[in-house]
Amino acid sequence: MKRRIYVLYCFLGIACCLIWQSPALATGVVTAIQQRYERLASYAADFEQTITHRESGSTERRQGRLLFKKPLLIHWQTNKPHEELLLVTSKEVWNYLPDEEIAWRYPLSVMQGSQGVIQVLTGQTALDRDFEVREEGREDGFRKLRLYPKEPSPQMVEALLWVDNNALIRRVSVLDFYGNGNDVRFTSFKADAPVRAADFTFQPPAGVDVENRDGTEGVQFFD
């Protein structure tokens, strides 16, 4: 079965006794996050990703690196257990599987209007506009927020954010309509990192099959 990176499809929420506070308590945090990401030009981070499949009860764990540069250049590299690359350039989107010697090329339009983990992690979504946000105190030294999309989609019906004292998102956990979970935790994070233009370009190696897709088949990334 081909492994694919999808546009954030699952994020399993852990059932717990919720400590609901007034939505007004989250207003200051949301404002701080949005202002911080408005100033953020780029970042480099190492991540651990855990994907939980509700129907089968299986769990996948991945490790990799994420590079981001405004306005929306993304280099998502999974190193373990299998190498995989999802690249959003200024012109197109690539999904490359080295061990299968295949690369899919999509138009940038596949990223438009999508709602998921990568949009949250890169500050592309307006939290105060798109979500009802509740603050749930602190956990592991981070402020914890619970998000409910004002317009839920199959990719996201609920999300949790862990935010550091600099108003930077250090972990995201998303629950999809089917009960699948996608949890991305940064193990290292460098704001305004000096990323290179070459990090956001891709030339398929010799011998790699390239399949051009128009995105109408409903592709989803970052799963």
Topology summary:
Elements: H1 24-39, E1 42-52, E2 59-69, E3 73-80, E4 84-88, E5 92-97, E6 102-107, H2 117-121, H3 127-130, E7 131-139, E8 142-149, E9 158-163, E10 169-175, E11 181-191, E12 209-212
Parallel strand pairs: 6-12
Antiparallel strand pairs: 1-2, 1-11, 2-3, 3-4, 4-5, 5-6, 7-8, 8-9, 9-10, 10-11
Throw out a few tags for this protein.
mainly beta; outer membrane lipoprotein receptor (LolB), chain A; 12 strands; globular; disordered N terminus
CATH superfamily: Lipoprotein localisation LolA/LolB/LppX
Output the structural class: mainly beta
Query: Into how many domains do the coordinates divide?
Result: 1
In one word, what is the shape?
A: globular
Description of the molecule:
With 223 residues, the chain is mostly beta strands. It has one domain (24-193): outer membrane lipoprotein receptor (LolB), chain A, CATH 2.50.20. It has helices at 24-39, 117-121, 127-130; strands spanning 42-52, 59-69, 73-80, 84-88, 92-97, 102-107, 131-139, 142-149, 158-163, 169-175, 181-191, 209-212. Residues 1-25 have low confidence and may be disordered.
